[in-house]
Design a protein that fits this description.
heterodimer; A: about 260 residues; alpha/beta; 11 strands; about 25% strand; disordered N terminus; B: alpha+beta; 2 domains; 6-stranded mixed barrel; 4-stranded antiparallel beta sheet
């Protein structure tokens, strides 16, 4: 775990309440990513991006397509490494890790939630949630126990033995969130988590994220929808491979008050 | 992790049951051919060995060259000369006659021989009755011991022909009645399997009395029995040395049981080579089938692989997963191949009379399964490495 404690960086100077000192989960400096498309053609996806995210933060990453936000998410999620720059995850440099090291980080410290859920079609909800724990080498019994707890957290206690094709879109995304939670990661990364859901179900998922944030989880959501972003505390805008702005959300969207959704 | 990968592999294979089975066919045939080849050779060897042991002795056969005027028959003097060797010689004269029982007429080889024939020729065993004794021999008694085939032909449907009469008719028109005193057992094993032995043994004296024109003391054929503890090839050399001094050059043949078996072995080896070749080709083709289906499987499951990697599966884990799947495929093929082979060999042993010992060595099964595993590894490693090397981002993006 990181030991350096710094204040969260905010672009808005008029932010009245100073943030309490919290641990940095993400400290990215001068991240660059160049894709070589054969020959002399090179695409600069990231052009020296800096980003700090502190423990418990709830941030949205927004940006037009081609801005580099997908590349950023892949690097933050350790699915890819930057061409240059430094990425400290909870104080550990991960920008220079090999595939073996990256997979360990992905397994233990990153929780992914994808737009397309990405569940194994042949496995039931419980086994899907237990999958990252399997790759951590945890025994079957402990794996199932933790997966069960995670599914209960997302309100799917009665769907554990259902396969993905027996679940609704919202339920599938809850399974995916449970899978991310079961691994107890440092950060939850969600890539357009409501992109495939109707607005009602999307709201339920966002409410679930709100609840998880309330419990102190660090959550980064990549989205292009302003309503989604406004659930978060902070909106990071990416353009042309750098952070264009980072603003504190003054009026956060609250979950619907009827209270029958979420965990 | 290993067991999880085995489980995943089984799920994947059972998820595509028909495809898996079709892919297996090549491996099944290959393993079947290899296993059957080796086991068939062992079964044949075991059958021959048990036969030789059943004889309780080794045999060689000395024969004049048929229809060759330069190859005289063997004489009593020849037998006496050979008698210095530690061997026993069956004295036997044979001629072809007609045998008549009621309406039934059959061609019969009539052997005149001595009462000690069953001690010398170990293939003689009686199913019914008795062999003639030295009293019968001296009297020239009109008694006959029929071979199994002869008894069957002449006394079809009669459970016990002992005591019944057979009319023996020579080509010269002599007719005499003989009483059946015994019926021999069919010769067991390879030597008796294909022979249609319609013959009857009578005392030598009776033969000379009832078949005029047969000169005494002349033999076309000398069956020689050698004790098991003697080296048959040495005895054979000694027999040749004696006969070479007494006879014109190249005027006789020596046949050994080993010689007959070596022909049999040659056939077995050719069969083995043929089946082995089929096995090798089938395994190669089967392996390419495995390779193909594993590449398809990796491509189909690109997203799954990407997901597993995104969730922390290491390249080695993915490699193992797909390698296990390939090996599982070939091992199932191997098990089916061995099962098919065992079933076929059982059938062969049950149907072919001279293959009467079922042999299935554990190491043959081990070899078959080893070959299966090797096929899976050899042809599965490339697709598995492709899977392991997939970039998680690319794989997740794959449609």
């Amino acid at each position: 775990m990181a030991t350096d404690k710094v204040a969260s960086v905010h672009s808005r100077v008029d932010d009245p309440a100073p943030m309490p000192a919290r641990e940095l989960v993400i400290r990215a400096r001068n991240l660059r990513k160049v894709y070589r498309l054969g020959g002399d053609v090179a695409v600069h996806a990231l052009r020296g991006l800096d980003l700090d995210v502190v423990t418990g933060e709830y941030a949205a990453i927004m940006g037009p397509s081609g801005s580099g936000k997908s590349t950023l998410l892949q690097i933050l999620g350790c699915l890819d490494v930057p061409s240059d720059g430094s990425y400290l995850l909870s104080g550990d440099e991960v920008a220079t890790l090999d595939e073996e090291g990256l997979s360990t980080i992905r397994n233990r410290r990153i929780g992914f939630v994808f737009q397309a859920y990405n569940l194994l079609p042949r496995a039931n909800a419980l086994d899907n949630v237990a999958l990252p724990l399997l790759y951590r080498g945890i025994g079957l019994r402990a794996r199932r126990e933790r997966a069960r707890e995670a599914l209960e957290r997302v309100g799917l206690a009665d769907r554990m033995d259902h396969r993905p094709n027996e679940l609704s879109g919202g339920q599938k995304q809850r399974v995916a969130i449970a899978r991310a939670l079961a691994a107890d990661p440092d950060i939850l990364l969600a890539d357009e988590p409501t992109g495939n859901l109707d607005s009602q179900t999307g709201q339920e998922i966002l409410t679930l994220f709100d609840v998880l944030h309330g419990e102190g989880r660090t959550i980064l959501i990549v989205t292009h929808e302003a309503e989604v972003a406004e659930h978060c505390e902070r909106i990071i805008r990416i353009r042309d491979g750098v952070v264009e702005s980072s603003e504190h959300v003054t009026t956060r969207r609250r979950p619907p008050s009827n209270g029958d959704t979420g965990a | 992790m290993f067991f999880e990968n085995v489980k995943t592999a089984l799920e994947a294979l059972f998820g595509n049951r028909l495809r898996s089975l079709l892919t297996l066919a090549g491996v099944v045939i290959g393993v079947f051919a290899v296993t059957t080849t080796i086991s068939l050779g062992q079964i044949a060897t075991a059958g021959i060995t048990s036969e030789l042991q059943a004889f309780g002795a080794q045999s060689i056969f000395v024969a004049r060259i048929p229809n060759d005027p330069n190859s005289p028959a063997f004489s009593d003097d020849d037998i006496e000369a050979l008698g210095r060797l530690p061997i026993e010689i069956l004295q036997q004269r044979s001629t072809r006659v007609w045998a008549v029982v009621g309406e039934t007429r059959a061609r019969l080889v009539l052997n005149g021989t001595t009462a000690n024939a069953p001690q010398i020729d170990r293939t003689i065993a009686l199913a019914q009755g008795r062999f003639f004794d030295s009293g019968d021999e001296q009297r020239g008694a009109p008694v006959i011991v029929l071979s199994a085939d002869a008894a069957e032909e002449l006394f079809e449907g009669v459970p016990d022909p002992v005591g019944r009469e057979v009319l023996i008719e020579t080509s010269g028109g002599n007719r005499s009645f003989y009483t059946v005193i015994g019926v021999k057992q069919r010769i067991a094993g390879a030597l008796g399997a294909f022979a249609n032995d319609v013959s009857g043994d009578v005392p030598m004296e009776s033969l000379f009395r009832d078949v005029p024109g047969l000169s005494r003391g002349r033999y076309d054929f000398l069956p020689i029995t050698i004790a098991l503890d003697r080296d048959a090839s040495v005895i054979e050399q000694q027999v040749r040395a004696i006969l070479d001094r007494r006879r014109p050059p190249d005027s006789y043949q020596v046949q050994t049981v080993e010689g007959a078996l070596s022909l049999f072995n040659t056939v077995t080896v050719i069969l083995q080579a043929l089946l082995g070749g089929i096995g090798a080709i089938s395994l190669l083709v089967g392996g390419i089938g495995i390779l193909n289906i594993m590449l398809v499987s990796v491509t189909e499951r690109t997203r799954e692989i990407g997901l597993r990697k995104a969730l922390g599966a290491k390249p080695a884990t993915i490699l193992q997963q797909f390698l296990i799947e390939a090996v599982m495929l070939t091992v199932i093929g191997g098990v089916l191949g061995v099962a098919l082979s065992v079933a076929s060999l059982w059938t062969v042993v049950a149907v072919v009379p001279f293959l009467d010992v079922f042999v299935l060595n554990p190491w043959v099964i081990a070899l078959a399964l080893g070959v299966s595993v090797a096929t899976g590894v050899v042809f599965g490693v490339w697709p598995a490495r492709r899977a392991a090397a997939l970039s998680p981002i690319e794989a997740l993006r794959y449609e």
